[in-house]
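Section 4.2 – Deliverable D4.2 (structural model, holo form)

The reporting period included a commitment to supply a predicted holo structure for the target in complex with zinc ion. Inputs used:
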Amino acid sequence: MAVMRHRGRLAPRPSRIAPRPKATLPFYRQPEWKELVKRLIKVRGRRCHDCGREGCRIYGDHEIELRDGGAALDERNVILRCATCHGAKTEQARRARAGLVDTPRGG
Ligand SMILES: [Zn+2]
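Output (structure tokens):
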């Protein structure tokens, strides 16, 4: 008699809750944007505006994000940030947009 194999016990379950791939706007692949960031790094220095870190990869970050109506190629709207700060800021903006801003509980 064949023993019924229970499916799924050992089989790795394909995760369907994979994090969404970051939707990179086509804008960020445009040479105009890359040039602007390059220029700003030259002018301001390769240095994170937030934490002051140097010698790391620096990203141009829109202070007011494009989807929030920020000016795309206005250097006054572009902040240079390291990956960490850039990620933190992006996450913050995303949460704020979704109304998920952390608020102290039981305050
Ligand atoms: Zn930083």
